[in-house]
# Entry
Amino acid sequence: MSTKQKNFVSATRCGVLLLLSEHLTREGVPHGFTSRTHGFGARYRGERDREQLSRALNLPRLAYMKQVHGRSIRTIHGNEPVPECDGVTTKERDLGLIVHSADCVPLLFWASDVNAVAAVHAGWRGTLARVAVEAVSSLGGRPDKIHVAIGPSIRACCFEVGDEVVEAFHASGRELKRILREGLRGRRHVDLITDNCDQLVACGIPEAQIYDSGRCTVCENDRFYSYRREGKGVGRLMGVIAVK
Ligand SMILES: [Zn+2]
# Structure
């Protein structure tokens, strides 16, 4: 399956620049991905940026994870603290679920039949561990009613990896020719987007319901934060979604 760039638009909400899936927007699902030029100012400010995002999307409550590159998904109720995990789901209204990333793949899920949402963090370790599959089963409902938006992340063009990463994907049973790309310098690159899409399709989600922003955080480092480019202290892109 090729990863197509499908129908994303930029829009400003209360001064915050957001990248939006046209489909989720049409369906009335509050969501979006921020960027470094998001209207918050020159620097990433953590809590203050989240407050501004909360106003922009009119979501009084936001929940975000302490992400640990694993595969556990937690269901969020009320204001209880969010445990360490890499995916959160909820059916509660007015509660925005946030995933933070700077190269890792941010995934936003909407299960239309049960009106549940999930925000998921899939770096190479989470992708390898199939965190997206865990999210699909945690959402409940029918997989063919799930819609997924894939935000800006490091892509096959830039995700050069060492042998240990290739070996880990190989050992997990992946067909390497599906996800490996030859880089310019003869080094191997991994396509995390294709691997995540393959996982989602294998769960029963129609390919046409997977909306990929097609944006690379390294190629477009002027617009998006990249850990690989900028190292420690880099800001974070926020993906957010809530039930309608
Ligand atoms: Zn790139």
Q: What stands out?
A: The mean pLDDT is 93.
